[in-house]
Amino acid sequence: MTAEVVTGVEAAPVAVVSRGRSARLRELAPFIPAALLLGILFFLPLGVMFIFSLWTTNANLDIVPVWNLDNYAQFFNSSAYVRTLGKTVIMGAAVTAICLVIAVAVAYFLARYISRRWARLALLVIIVPFWSSYLLRVYSWQAILGEKGALNQLLVGLGLIAEPSRLFVYNDIGTFIVLTYVYMPFAILVLYASLERFDYTQLTAAQDLGASPSRAFRYILLPQIRPGLITAAIFVFIPILGEFLTPSMVGGASGLLIANLIQTFFKNALVPQGAALGFLIVAFVTVLLVVFRKYLRVEDVYARG
Amino acid sequence: MTVLDQTHSRRRFLQLTGAVGATAALGGVLQACNVIGGGGAATTGTFNWMTWSDHWIQSQLDKIATDTKISTAIQELAGNAEGYAKLKEVKGQLDKMSGDAMWVPNAYAKDGLIEPFDINELKVSTQLYSFAREFPYWQSSEGYMAYPFGWSPIMIYYDPAKVSGGPTDWQVLLDPKYKGRVVVENQPEEIVAYMARAAGFDKPYDLTDDQLTTVKGYLEKLKPNILKFAQQATDSVAAMVSGEAWLITGNLGNEDRVKDGGGPEIKGYVPSEGTVGWHDGEMIVKEGANKALIKPFLEQSQQAELIAENFLANGRPLFNEKAYKLLTDQGKQDQADRYLYSKAPDVLPTMVLKGPGTSTDKSIQLFNEVFGGG
After folding, report:
1. Which of A166, B50, B218, B261 is disulfide-compatible with B241, CB 3.0–4.6 A?
2. How many Å apart are CA A256 and CA B368, to the nearest integer?
């Protein structure tokens, strides 16, 4: 061993460094499987996708390694892609906003007004739909929102509308309703974790000092659950950017989002074109996360609740 | 927790993760050995088949597996282009592949992905209509490229109680009276092809830039009329049954499917401008590790009794002539004739067969341009 042949004053630092490195390696060892998985299953495909996005397809649908930026240029040259991305962002923002508003109310109620036991039961009920397939859930919404669906039958039965409405599905409204339903539980779970750890005596103290309930809510509660709000927003907003199933099933001909356009390329073996469009979404999400990161430190979620 | 405990926990954790990793790796190696080991000329075993859901019936596969010890591992085929791209990636991991008429010679055979065979070597092939053994585009010096299965033109179906005037062409899909009442399958290149046929173009998969500009106008008129893109044929039928859709596109046989589903009496027709259509077949993958199982399997699975059952289950014509006679004997000739079962020689030449086109990329761009962005 090297440390044994080195003597005197110089030996000590070498041994310390050696022990430090091996200890560090031992600490890192548990993360190696995850790092390998992430590397092989995420970063490597991402790299391959990026390379493909710079290649092209020939008439035989073969991917040809001719380097070019045409696939990226098509995004900016056709207003349809930019418009669709814009529409996707607006849809994502709208669904995120409504999810946060409802989730804060639900999580606040669960965390503050009912016992932990009942709250956990309620959370279980909220996540029960996740035990069934996503596809089935979206199909069931077709049956609920359709022209002959349960909602229309209810509204007609109550005399609120004279004949079944076609407003609820196969348009952007249908997509909005179903996406809200699908992603709401994520927001509730995240925000419940934040609100459960909040010290509610602070709100009482604020009101004792003259703050109105809404002022106490805005200036005492919201800042302290900000990491939870941002995490919930990330959990809802970013997956929506990649949503293709819901819009394709309840969005109709005018409800397609950007992922549906990406899918049309892959369905027709136009991999480079689809990869380029997909990579632009990845880049967009990365920029968003960097922006969000300025407002969120991961440790905040645990430290501040 | 003491330092000793911590070290122990970490060691245990590493032991456990190591054991899990080794088990997974060993499993992978064994699986790989199994795949490689299957490459011999064994006549029993399991083969991998990428196909459409109407090419098989589980009870039939179970019986074949019991009788012959040949089992199937099926992967759903979403579309020709996707299947072709997938086979190019995985090659020998698949043994049998289903594909539409012009995809067979112009993609699979051209790339050397499939193994042509002497169709007359298969005893069951004598049950086919003779013309089905002689499609010129499936002939090669090495043999026949695929075993013929089923076929259909793409038709328009309508509810006569809602759609007036007895339409005969594609133009009805563009009529503003039917806003939000049309359902087409979610196949962008096919939708572009339909509109190309509506515009009178004979080669809907090989469109010029000028033709694409014309087709764009048709697609823009079609867009407000589309209620939704059906994910599969059953979605179109369901929309017709519920009354949400008044017009749908689809294969032969939707009248009965809608009626069986409790929907209205609907009518169907082949559009007068001409239509696109398909006939498909089963190919043997050249590098398939278990390709030796395919011919024995075809001998069993293509028997007239099974094909007749498939016809009744899926309702579109097939190429097995003996099955037609069987259906006639069973009192089902009326249904078979309504589905043009014996009319393939007359109808096939009127259809533009699905195949890889030169304008695929531009057709998809056009579809995205029209249907993207709200």
Report:
1. B261
2. 9
Domains of chain B, first to last = 45-151+278-350 (3.40.190.10), 153-276+355-371 (3.40.190.10)
Length of chain A (residues)? 305
- What the block records as the tokens of B360 is 């695929």
pLDDT digit string, tens, across residues B148-202? 999 999 999 999 999 999 999 999 999 999 999 999 999 999 999 999 999 999 9
Count contacts between A and B (CB, < 8 Å).
120
Under the banding of pLDDT at 50, 70 and 90, the label for residue B237 is very high
Q: How far is CA A133 from the centre of its chain?
A: 18
pTM of the predicted protein model? 0.82
The tokens 């006939």 sit on which residue?
B279
Give which of A110, A89, A88, A108 is closest to A100, Cα–Cα. Answer: A108
Residue of A250, A267, A271, A280 to mutate for B, most B C-beta atoms under 10 A? A267
> What CATH topology corresponds to A69-303?
MetI-like fold (1.10.3720)
B230: amino acid identity, one letter: A
Of B13, B84, B186, the CB nearest to A61: B84
Return the domain boundaries, chain A. Answer: 1-53, 69-303
Single-letter residue type at B169: D
**Please, is B214 exposed, middle or buried when counting C-beta atoms within 10 Å of its C-beta (0-12, 13-18, 19+)?**
middle
